[in-house]
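Hi P.,

Sorry for the delay on this. The queue was packed all week, but I finally got your sequence through. Input first:
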Amino acid sequence: MSNVGSSEVRKDVEDVARIDVDEIDTPNTTAAEEVEEEDPTKRRTKKRKSQVWNDFTMTENDDGTRKAICNHCCMKFAMKVGGPTSTLMRHQKICVARQVSDKKQKILTLDSVICDGKGGGPSVYKYDKEKVREIIAKMIIVHEYSFRMVEHKLFNVLLKTLNPRFDSVSRVTIKNDCIKLFTSEKKKLKEMFNSVGKICLTTDLWTSNQTIGYMCLTAHYMDIDWQLQKRIISFCGLPPPHTGLAIADAILQCLIDWGIENKVCTVTMDNASANDTAIRNLKDNFSLKGTLYFNGRIFHVRCCAHILNLMVQDGLDEIRGVIENVRESVKYFKMSPARLHKFTEIVRQLQLSTSRRLILDVPTRWNSTYKMLESALFFKEVFPRYAERDPNYRWLPSTDDWNKAQEVCKFLEVFSDATLAFSGSVYPTSNLFLPEVWKIKQMLNEKSLDERDFMREMTYKMREKFEKYWGECNLVMAIAAVLDPRYKMKLIEFCFPRIYSSIEASRHIALVREALYALFHEYVNASSLGDMSIMASSSTNYELCGISGVSKSVAEFDEWASAIDSVEPLKSDLDVYLEEGRLIHKGNITGVKFDALEWWKANTLKFRILSDMARDILSIPISTVASESAFSAGGRVLSKCRSCLKLETVQALICTSDWIRSELDIEKLEEDDDEDIQDVCLE
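Then the structure:
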């Protein structure tokens, strides 16, 4: 027996001796890539059945020669197509690395929990190169790395150090892996949408640094756990001109692709005229199909954040001179380190905090202008002292300018709070917005009687915009407020007389009540149809199964009970809900925020139909912030160095990143909300 063993060792050594020393490293081309590059006209390779291939991998060199590589010690053996595997089997028996791998203590890992986002206990570690490539693709998508990163020398050194069996991949291969991941994730999301009831949409347009127009479409819905969810379902190129018809066609095409065209509840857009045309086309399309929710009465939701921006921008025109002086002053200080140093010295002399910063605004964003004025007011004593030291400084605001800026900042504080509510990073439910609109209207009414001319003029312009967009009752806000158990109809009866005239307030209150009951009856009718279909299917099942005796009596009882249950009660869910007292929530004292969705989830059995209605209404987005936030990611993905990416690749990267982040609960890689605002550091 010893002679046989020694002869096997000699033969194995002779085979190893024929190996080229330069070929010991693991090859860059994987088996999967090799199959993709083969000529489809060639005869298909016979499937390998020998167990030896569990420990070996076949590769092909550039000159056409084939090598079998040991998965444990990375030794290579010359192989021919269809050749014997006896040499490989001899090496399999004496491979020290394989024996150690089989006998050494197993490594426990929790990687599967992290990568898959699923719970589970520890498992025995097993190297899976396909899984490694999938994780690399997810890393590149989620963290917005360049495809070329996989070709970086030290990146490959790192992964080789972690596991010598890592196979390097090219940027083309990893890009294809990302597209493959997009396809698989989209399939999973499509299946999930089958279990979703109503879906609300937000959309907005964006132009990249390639001057290519993109449309982002985001779906908002409630999952089975009553958690608000949103997913970007399209980030597609939209060629000019961006007409309303082109926008509507792009949205419809996307909805048909996802199979959710019959689930759409509302569409939230900004106030561009093209969007109004798109909404009319979409309503006509859904109306013809008979899938228009609530007869289209709340189908178009105007972005509240955009309305606020238009409103405040009109008002700020009245103090444009003050704003220009402050803006040019900050620019002047920022352009020269010497000027900024001189400004900082004066700040220290006045014993002001140098941790506060001057802010240079973005003229198209009123909230950045508000922050610029706030920061400048903190340093208002520094400006005149700086002017005494620099004769070239020509934009010193006067005392009257500072007084105007101070009054305007106090006035805009209400609008700033409302903008934070409308544009919150934590997804707000639609019941939160009516109180904010009421506070804005109250402030406008008060300032319209101000003694100062500039405040009256400013308020007059802002009230015009308010009446244009919120002069008529916003049914989404109103119905959502009623479905908040802390408010019910009491908030409507309190707010409307303060927002509208007495006649208009009475008319709008009656309108809200009528719309509330009309919408509720739609849900009652839908529930009755659903119950009838369930009864019919149950009866059919009893007949098909041939159930007799006791089971037949049970079936008769079910039919009788269902008929009794279908009789309309004296009071509906809505009547009972409105007649009950308001929920007293002492959140201001306890610091615990009220969650309307949690309340409705807990009261589903009590308000079976009304809870379904509340579920759909409270999930309606009131602003397009969810879609606009995708443009920040789009700007990073389509950087100046990556501006040649194809439209399909951009969509795959943006959408898949959003899906994976939502699935794994990874915070967005977003820069500060004020990423365009330039801070001028004084330290």
